[in-house]
Specification:
The chain has 115 residues and is of the alpha+beta class. The chain has one domain (2-108). Helices cover 17% and strands 29% of the residues. The strands form two sheets. It has a five-stranded antiparallel sheet with strand order 1-7-2-5-6, covered by helices on one side. Strands 3-4 form a two-stranded antiparallel sheet. Helix 1 (10-21) packs parallel to helix 2 (43-50). It starts with a strand and ends in a 7-residue tail after the last strand.
Length: 115
């Protein structure tokens, strides 16, 4: 399990990318954003998130996007699942009165993998 504040710095986006790259196929990922995750979102991190079956369903400047400016976001996906199979939801602007909150990522590991 990990928590990553990609609003704070590009280094956090790189750290989250490495974390997600280590997840095995079939790993369930739970992702949340309260506020802002688009400013330091790298193409590498976006690719790792899309690998969990997420899809670009938000719209920024009439272009598909994974996150929008100050969009709260939640998703549950599976590593290496087909695009668009994750459960996703967006809530623009603010979440519970907060903006610029950290990104949190949780991974549930199947029992047979835990040693």
């Amino acid at each position: 399990m990990g928590s990553f504040d990609i609003w704070e710095s590009p280094r956090e986006a790189e750290r989250m990318t490495r974390f997600l790259q280590q997840a095995a196929t079939g790993t369930i990922g739970v992702f949340t954003v309260a506020g802002e995750a688009s400013v330091n979102l790298t193409s590498a991190l976006e690719a790792e998130l899309l690998a969990f079956g997420l899809s670009k369903e938000a719209s920024v400047n009439r272009s598909p996007a994974l996150f929008g400016l100050k969009y709260s976001f939640a998703a549950v996906g599976v590593k290496n699942a087909p695009a668009g199979t994750a459960l996703q939801a967006w809530s623009p602007d603010q979440f519970m009165g907060c903006s610029g909150m950290p990104v949190a990522c949780g991974v549930l590991v199947p029992k047979e993998i835990v040693k």
